[in-house]
Amino acid sequence: MITTVRERLARLPRVRLAHLPTPLDACPRLSAAEGSAISVKRDDCTGLAFGGNKVRQHEYVLGDAIAQGADCVIQGSASQSNHSRQLAAAGAKLGLEVFLLPKRDAMSAPVQGNHLVSHLLGATITPIDPAESSTRRKDELAARLRERGRRPYVVGMGATRSLTLAALAYVEALVEIVEAGEAPDWIFVTSQGSTQAGLQLGCELLGLPTRVVGVNPMTAAHEAYLPPAQIAALARGAAELLGLASAIEPADVVNLTGYVGEGYGVPSAESLAAIATLGAAEGILLDPVYSGKGFAGLLDHCSRGLLAPGERVVFVHTGGLPALFGYADALTPQP
Asked: Residue range 268-272: average pLDDT?
């Protein structure tokens, strides 16, 4: 089935941006401490502008945009958005103008971290009020650009096609995990939608019993939140793009919101502890608001005995490392 999946993926429009396959690093010291065989799928090493999961996803999303004749792309999110930073880099590489609509949130000034990188990569950046709908503002900008004869392509929240295409990238990531060794018993990932949908679909297509656990960095109060029903729909939509069938239903999707902490974009005590734990044990860095919270979920499952001794666990590291510098105050021990 791996051959079939790869053949179907190869039929789709695609651009090449990421360094693939990414490494699958064993974590022997951490595994000995936690009692499970833990490895990290290093999608923080996808290469483009500090890497991350969106680089892999943009290969399919921007392949589709270019195939449709787009000459620019639009995204709007938090000021420290990993998605925006990686889109700005991909646009620069491909010659697509990138329009970003970051929120004027608590992390927008001073300009640093992901927000700084987006500026350095030449994106056209128009900050919006934190209370405004990113989806609405993106659609309004797309309409204005069309009136001027441009051909915009909208990505991210509210853009279902781009979210579905993004899921395809993580079908391929699942194939890479299997090709690197024995299929894991568990996969943990920080995801609010596409990344988890792709991993879950990959497990289904390959007939694996692997349990996929998504740790959501936000709650239903956030505009970008997708409930399990929509994650399942993304998985089924991705299968359709491959010309295959999926029976994934909402009940199959485990997407946890219990590790968000105070809120989206705010480090939790558990995420900070997770950063310290993995860093000290294996020399691998996490970020405080995405991968840190996902890894906190994995460590919590280990400590509560929810993983059987010796079970194989893969944590999919989705990147976000430039945010470390934006959150330096929270990460620095106080005297």
From this structure: 96
| Domains present along the chain, CATH in parentheses | 2-52+160-331 (3.40.50.1100), 54-154 (3.40.50.1100)
pLDDT reading at 326 higher than 90: no
* Residue 34 structure tokens: 């936690």
3-state secondary structure the chain: CHHHHHHHHHCCCCCCCCCCCCCEEECHHHHHHHCCEEEEEEHHHCCHHHCCHHHHHHHHHHHHHHHCCCCEEEECCCCCCHHHHHHHHHHHHHCCEEEECCECCCCCCCCCHHHHHHHHCCCEECCECCCCCHHHHHHHHHHHHHHCCCCEEECCCCCHHHHHHHHHHHHHHHHHHHHCCCCCCEEEEECCCHHHHHHHHHHHHCCCCCEEEEECCCCCCCCCCCCHHHHHHHHHHHHHHCCCCCCCCHHHCEEECCCCCCCCCCCCHHHHHHHHHHHHHHCCCCCCCCHHHHHHHHHHHHHCCCCCCCCEEEEEECCCCCHHHHCHHHHCCCC
User: Nearest 5°: CA angle at 158, between 157 and 162?
Assistant: 75
Residue 335 confidence (pLDDT): 61
Nearest to 158 by CA among 142, 145, 172, 169: 142
Mean pLDDT within 282-298:
97
Nearest CA to 251 among 228, 234, 227? 228
For the stretch 39-75, pLDDT in tens is 999 999 999 999 999 999 999 999 999 999 999 999 9
Which residues are marked as active site? 81
- Residue 210 is predicted with a pLDDT of 98
d(CA 25, CA 2): 22
Q: Looking at the predicted structure, is the pLDDT value of residue 196 above 70?
A: yes
Determine the average pLDDT of the residues in 145-174. Answer: 97
pLDDT at 182: 87
**Average pLDDT value for the chain:** 96
Task: List the structure tokens of 74.
Answer: 């639009």
Residue type at position 192: Q
